[in-house]
Specification:
Layout lengths: L1 H20 L1 H9 L4 H21 L6 H17 L5 H13 L2 H22 L15
Helix pairs in contact: 1-2, 1-3, 1-6, 3-4
């Protein structure tokens, strides 16, 4: 589960980086979820993300925080289909109307969360050394 959580963190990091580099490409990616099937896909993605983060929390650096993040992500996955396509389109329009700086700020937040999650689930020993490495 930690490997899946790590891959998810890399995905979030990549989306954040893409949004900082090109907010319009991030908006184009988000618009792909602007349908009933898209909302179900987004919900499934959030459910998978939440489950993997929650289950990898026990072996992470900060288990309580990751449990909270995983549970929150899972609940947002349950809620996502009820947003509706029209409301989702209005949210995207509102978000994009704020301009590139606003979109980049949200992307920077995603980048930070992705890096934080990656750091939290990378396997480390108690002494701080990476697995397989010895202390000098």
């Amino acid at each position: 589960m930690k490997s899946i959580a790590f891959l998810i963190s890399l995905f979030i990091t990549a989306l954040g980086a893409q949004g900082i580099i090109s907010p319009l490409k991030l908006l184009s990616f988000a618009r792909k979820f602007e349908s009933r099937a898209g909302l179900y896909a987004a919900a499934a993605l959030r459910l998978a993300m939440g489950t993997s983060i929650f289950h990898s929390a026990i072996a992470s650096r900060i288990p309580n925080i990751l449990r909270a993040i995983g549970a929150t992500t899972f609940v947002t996955g349950l809620i996502t289909p009820f947003i509706g396509v029209q409301r989702f389109a209005r949210i995207l329009s509102w978000w994009s109307a704020r301009g590139p700086a606003f979109m980049r700020a949200w992307a920077a937040l995603a980048l930070g969360i992705g890096i934080f999650l990656a750091w939290a689930v990378i396997p480390w020993r108690e002494n701080g050394a990476r697995k397989g490495q010895t202390k000098p």
